[in-house]
């Protein structure tokens, strides 16, 4: 009986550690929706290991936004890709060099776009 009880306690602890927090709970804990799991592994080096469990419960698997395009950027003249750590992926369309230097332009959030949608959008706008 003691073995079964000990097993259930260990199982319950494992289940609690693997739970995923809701987006609202993560936001209340101070984590963004763009949190990647690789960031959680860096907490220890800054003395923040107590945040690791909550971080693991709120993070998404690491993704490279360029993976959505894979080797396709060369198909789209005028396309440049810039990475900003922790930022949601967006496409910003600039009409001219003045807009580019000012950082203004039409902006579209692409975090939920699939590869086909993204490729079609770029084909319509850039080619």
TrEMBL record:
Entry keywords, A to Z: Endoplasmic reticulum, Selenocysteine, Signal
Gene3D superfamilies: Sep15/SelM thioredoxin-like domain, active-site redox motif
Pfam families: Sep15_SelM
GO molecular function terms noted in the UniProt entry: oxidoreductase activity
GO CC, one annotated term: endoplasmic reticulum lumen
Stored InterPro entries: Sep15/SelM_sf, Sep15_SelM, Sep15_SelM_dom, Thioredoxin-like_sf
Name the UniProt record assigns to this protein: Selenoprotein F
Organism: Macrostomum lignano
């Amino acid at each position: 009986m003691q073995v079964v009880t000990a097993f259930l306690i260990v199982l319950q602890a494992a289940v609690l550690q693997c739970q995923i927090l809701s987006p609202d709970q993560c936001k209340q804990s101070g984590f963004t929706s763009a949190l990647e799991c690789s960031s959680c592994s860096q907490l220890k080096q800054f003395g923040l290991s107590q945040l690791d469990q909550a971080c693991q419960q709120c993070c998404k698997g690491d993704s490279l936004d360029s993976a959505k395009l894979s080797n396709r950027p060369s198909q789209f003249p005028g396309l440049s890709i810039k990475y900003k750590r922790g930022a949601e992926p967006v496409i910003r369309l600039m009409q001219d060099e003045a807009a580019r230097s000012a950082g203004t332009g039409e902006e579209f959030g692409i975090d939920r776009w699939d590869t086909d949608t993204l490729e079609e959008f770029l084909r319509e706008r850039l080619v």
